[in-house]
Structures are given as structure tokens and as C-alpha cells.
Design goal:
This protein has 277 residues and is an alpha/beta fold. It has a single domain, classed as 3-Layer(aba) Sandwich (Rossmann fold). 43% of the residues lie in helices and 14% in strands. Strand 2, helix 6 and strand 3 form a beta-alpha-beta unit. Helix 2 runs antiparallel to helix 3.
């Protein structure tokens, strides 16, 4: 965010997508893999994430194909842990240490996404995902095991424009919002935030690369540090492991692994940082 010439202003709130952004997998595809349904579910998911199908057309269809149980959804938390973007814990810790409100905003299943959020030190009230209910009598209920998902709670996140609607409701004077994500539902929310950052470090999708204000093809989240923080606020990272990550992120912009859609804006962004180092 600009304030005058060659001055980069800190954001106050950052919203991170989960699947394909914080982790290297699509959670719904991993659940489908447990049931041998990954081929169809992966095709439907990619069509929605690339913008070829609206999310609402396939969301409940995928769950009906898989019929995941609570045990399987909890197993997904471990899969998320094993496929975490390597520097995600460091980047999130650094942002929170600098006073940034870090949220997870996902169309994924709430229990698994919250489990990942707790692992990353993000409190539950800052994790926004889709809540489901289970059939308590179709599983081995006599052992306390619930059956498969029986109902999805109404949520804007079930829809292609759901993140946009959520973020519009979050806007307020003094807040500067950034969204980071890899799919069409993230791109659709671009008008609701001050900066939309497309992340292509896991899944490269041309429509997102072309439409994002900033696009990252680097396989780490380090470029987010100089984007989210102002040089003044980033001084809090001096002498910490995150200082090296900040410099790594700036190198990604210089090397073309992260770029602004507007070349002049990128030049001024780097000028602001170089004048402060």
C-alpha cells in the first residue's frame, strides 16, 4: 500500500488460503484418496480452482462421493502437517510478532483447517472455514465413532464469491487487508482487499497469475514478509531467524520469482525497501 513516493505501508490483516497456499495438497483430494475417489474429486476440484466451474456446483457433490468420517477428517490434520510449506510457521510467527492479525480463510473443512491453525499458532477465532455435521448413528456408534458427514452448515465459503462477501463484511476504517491464495475463489475476492497476492508455489493456474496484483511462483512464503510489513515495522525482526527470511523474500522479487502485475509499482516497492536497508 502506498503513502507518498517510495514508501511501503504495512498491512493490518492478512488472510491466507489453506490448501495450495499453506500446504502442498488439496485437503478434499486427500480425503478422496482414502476412499479411492481421488481421480474424479481432483478433476472437479481443479475445475473449480481454475475458474472453469463455480465452487457451489461441486462442493457438496464431492462430499457425497467421499462421505468422509470425522476420524478421516482428523487424519487430514496430520496430512496437512506433513505437507506444510516449510517456512510457514516462521513467517506466521514473524507477522504476529510484528502485530499483524493473521487469519486463515478457506473453503476447506473447519475441523481440519482449525487443526492446522493451532499448529501454526493461529487462534480458532481467526480461522474461517466450512463447518459440517456427522451422522451419529451410521458409524460404529457403540464405540463412540461417528458416521460420515451428513450435513454442511450454510456458509458463504460454499460459493465462488464467498470469500469476497466475507472480506467485504470485514472492511473497516484503518484496516488494510491482504488476501493470499491460489484459486479462482481467491481471485474473485480481489476487489474486496487492498492487495491480492496469488500463490503459485504449489499449483500454477494461469488465470490467477494474470489477475493477481502480485504473483509468487517461489515455493516458500518468504516474499510475503516484505509485502505485508513496512520497512519500519520489519525492524522488529532484526537479529531473529525471520530477518533472513525477509531478505530471501526481497531476493525473490529481484529474481522474478515474485512480481507485481504493475512493473512501476514493483520498481517503487523495491526502491522503498532498498532505501531502508
Amino acid at each position: 500500500m502506498w503513502d507518498g513516493v517510495a514508501r511501503w505501508v504495512s498491512f493490518t490483516h492478512v488472510f491466507l488460503d489453506c490448501d495450495g497456499t499453506l500446504v502442498r495438497v488439496e485437503g478434499i483430494v486427500e480425503l478422496a484418496r482414502m476412499r479411492g475417489q481421488e481421480t474424479m474429486v481432483e478433476a472437479l476440484t481443479e475445475a473449480a480452482m481454475a475458474g472453469r466451474l463455480p465452487l457451489e456446483a461441486i462442493y457438496e457433490q464431492r462430499l457425497a462421493l467421499i462421505q468422509p468420517t470425522r476420524t478421516e477428517i482428523r487424519r487430514l490434520i496430520q496430512i496437512y502437517r506433513e505437507n506444510l510449506i516449510p517456512d510457514a510457521p516462521l513467517i506466521i510467527q514473524a507477522l504476529q510478532a510484528c502485530g499483524i492479525a493473521v487469519h486463515v480463510l478457506s473453503g476447506g473443512l473447519e475441523e481440519a483447517v482449525r487443526g492446522l491453525g493451532l499448529l501454526l499458532g493461529i487462534p480458532p477465532h481467526r480461522v474461517h472455514a466450512v463447518r459440517v455435521h456427522y451422522d451419529p448413528f451410521s458409524g460404529a456408534w457403540w464405540r463412540g465413532e461417528e458416521g460420515p458427514v451428513s450435513r454442511v452448515e450454510p456458509s458463504p465459503l460454499l460459493y465462488h464469491d464467498g470469500k469476497a462477501r466475507f472480506l467485504e463484511s470485514f472492511r473497516a476504517p484503518g484496516r488494510r487487508l491482504m488476501l493470499v491464495g491460489d484459486g479462482a475463489t481467491d481471485l474473485a475476492a480481489r476487489p474486496a482487499v487492498h492487495l491480492f497476492v496469488g500463490f503459485g508455489g504449489v499449483f500454477y493456474r494461469p488465470a490467477i497469475a494474470e489477475g493477481a496484483d502480485v504473483y509468487i511462483v517461489y515455493d516458500r512464503l518468504a516474499p510475503l514478509l516484505p509485502l505485508i510489513l513496512s520497512p519500519e515495522r520489519a525492524r522488529r525482526l532484526q537479529g531473529t531467524p525471520a530477518e533472513a527470511a525477509l531478505l530471501e523474500g526481497l531476493r525473490a522479487f529481484r529474481d522474478g520469482q515474485a512480481r507485481f502485475r504493475d512493473a512501476e509499482r514493483q520498481r517503487r516497492f523495491l526502491q522503498a525497501w532498498e532505501s531502508s536497508l
